[in-house]
């Protein structure tokens, strides 16, 4: 069954969506984490059940992150989202350390899609359903500029500032 909850954050009210899973910590595997006004944000459906308790562990980690106390999320994601290429890109994004950045070109090189693949990498990153916890905000332009972010470039800048990432 799909469950959801909202969590207050400095970026606005986050919408967490998950699937109940006996193997997941807290019993819920995260499917989506979206921000208000986000491009492609999840929308609550009638057959979903509101269950804030299902997300207590995740909400605690988010509070720790926004307080500057947590640098790495330990969250179980629901399998199956995205194409093989998107999942490969998302894994590369997850490897970017807290407080650091990587360019779209560097991610393309890591996944074997250098050159023309940079655009495909950007598209895959733009379809990341797990904002904040899968740190696509750490991916920047080759010139150091902040490029697109589904939650808005201002939020990307706030997240990088929180992490102390140096962006020119």
From TrEMBL:
EC code: 2.1.1.63
Keywords tagged on the record: Methyltransferase, Transferase
Protein name as annotated: Methylated-DNA--[protein]-cysteine S-methyltransferase
Organism: Streptomyces pratisoli
